[in-house]
């Protein structure tokens, strides 16, 4: 399992989301994509991140960014947890972790300890929003990763988290897509 690097072509996705809709990178050619890998579907950190993405998704989609989320929990567990947020982007179940392997997603017990020491405020915020782990179906030691892909599915940012609550800052995601005014015809 090796990490993806900037400039490499993202491995193709040919799967379906939790509602049975096709999810393919090649169908998104011509648009930028943020592909995010999460821990298990009841993870408070992961649900908080999805909550934050929901808040900016409409604007980022209007600026040409598609989002795809991947969880390694089974579909039914995702439906009972993160899907309750009604995310406006596809969520893929990958319980056999084949996509995780293709994208070099790592596992680390040390990353769990780092998050416990450095992110108690984030955990409290997640739980205050109701993201309390009810069903920890999945590996606890998966470390999140985010990839920003250009219009030709070339990796422009490969962000492998340092701990289980670490994702690419939203400011970097926003900087990756052009402003709406820049897209308007002259």
Describe, in plain words, how this protein is organized in 3D.
By secondary structure, the protein is of the alpha/beta class. It has one domain (32-173): Glutaredoxin (3-Layer(aba) Sandwich), CATH 3.40.30.10. Helices cover 32% and strands 18% of the residues. It is built from seven helices and seven strands, in the order βββαβαβαααββαα. Helix 1 crosses helix 5. The termini are far apart.
Query: What is the radius of gyration computed over CA atoms, rounded to a whole number of angstroms?
Result: 16 Å
Under the CATH scheme, the architecture is 3-Layer(aba) Sandwich
Q: Into how many domains do the coordinates divide?
A: 1
Assembly annotation? single chain
Order of strands, main sheet, comes to 5-4-3-6-7
Instruction: Quote the average pLDDT.
Output: 87
Number of helices: 7
Query: Distance N terminus to C terminus?
Result: 46 Å
Q: In which range does the helix fraction lie? A: 25-40%
Order of helices and strands: EEEHEHEHHHEEHH
- Quickly give the structural class: alpha/beta
Work out the strand percent.
15-25%
Short description:
This protein has helices at 44-62, 75-80, 98-102, 109-118, 120-128, 170-176, 180-183; strands spanning 14-16, 22-24, 32-37, 65-71, 91-93, 145-149, 155-160. The protein has 186 residues and is α/β, with parallel strands linked by helices. It has one domain (32-173): Glutaredoxin, CATH 3.40.30.
């Amino acid at each position: 399992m090796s990490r993806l690097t900037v400039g490499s072509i993202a491995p193709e996705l040919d799967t379906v989301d939790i509602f049975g809709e096709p999810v393919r990178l090649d169908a998104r050619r011509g648009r930028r994509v943020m592909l995010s890998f999460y821990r298990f579907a009841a993870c408070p950190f992961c649900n908080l991140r999805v909550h934050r993405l929901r808040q900016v998704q409409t604007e980022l989609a209007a600026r040409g960014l598609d989002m795809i989320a991947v969880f390694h929990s089974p579909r039914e567990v995702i439906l009972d947890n993160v899907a309750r947020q009604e995310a406006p982007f596809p969520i893929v179940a990958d319980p056999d972790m084949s996509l995780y392997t293709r994208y070099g997603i790592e596992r680390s017990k040390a990353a769990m300890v780092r998050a416990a020491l450095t992110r108690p405020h984030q955990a409290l915020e997640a739980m205050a929003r109701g993201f309390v782990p009810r069903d920890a179906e999945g590996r606890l030691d998966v470390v999140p990763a985010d990839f920003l892909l250009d219009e030709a599915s070339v990796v422009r940012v490969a962000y492998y988290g340092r701990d289980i609550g670490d994702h690419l800052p939203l400011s970097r995601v926003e900087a990756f897509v052009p402003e709406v005014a820049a897209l308007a015809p002259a």
